[in-house]
Amino acid sequence: MGSRITSVETGPGGSRTALGNAAEDRVLAMLQARGWQLLHRHYRSPGRGGGEIDLIMCDPAGVVVFVEVRQRTRPDWGGALASVTRAKQRRIIWAARHYLARRGGDMPFCRFDVVALESDGVKWIQGAFTL
Predict the structure, then answer these.
(1) Burial of 8 per CB tally in 10 Å (0-12, 13-18, 19+)
(2) For the segment 49-106, what is each residue's pLDDT rounded down to a tens digit?
(3) pLDDT of res. 74
(4) Selection from 105, 104, 99, 109 nearest residue 56 by Cα
(5) CATH-assigned architecture of domain 16-129
(6) CB 72 within 8 Å of CB 119
(7) Contact 90, 73 (CB under 8 A)
(8) Hey, where are the domains in the chain?
């Protein structure tokens, strides 16, 4: 799906941000094809130490899923999955709590997924970490 990305930092005609957005576009299309609904993209919590959530989705069962998209073309340093460190998880959780508080209403069922795009394919870890 699309051209192969040749570097983590930059690729053909693109910045790191553009490559990240392309990876998120790919994952978004994959999830929407499975009947998922996009609730928010690039949600940022305010303040120092806040975090960003790449995609906030609602799966067909009504579960709110906070999706972290990671991409690596080389397995150096453990690859894309290994780049979701405990510190990164804490920032995502912080942002998710902020999103849920602002959303109001009843607390929905939710989970945290990581979708890693690596040179050997897509790895989707459902429930990758918890509050």
Answers:
(1) middle
(2) 778 999 999 999 999 999 999 987 666 667 788 888 899 999 999 999 999 999 888 8
(3) 64
(4) 99
(5) 3-Layer(aba) Sandwich (3.40)
(6) yes
(7) no
(8) 16-129
Residue in the block written with tokens 């906070």: 66
Backbone phi, psi, residue 7, to 5°: -150, 150
Question: Do 53 and 97 form a contact (C-beta atoms < 8 A)?
Answer: no
Q: Is the whole model's pTM more than 0.70, yes or no? A: yes
The single residue listed with the structure tokens 């959530």 is 53
Cα separation, 115 vs 113, in Å, equals: 7
User: Which amino acid, one-letter code, is at 22?
Assistant: A
Q: Which two tokens stand for residue 121?
A: 């394919």
CA distance 74 to 7: 8
Task: Please report the pLDDT score of residue 126 as a whole number.
Answer: 96
Question: What is d(CA 98, CA 120) in angstroms, rounded to the nearest whole number?
Answer: 35
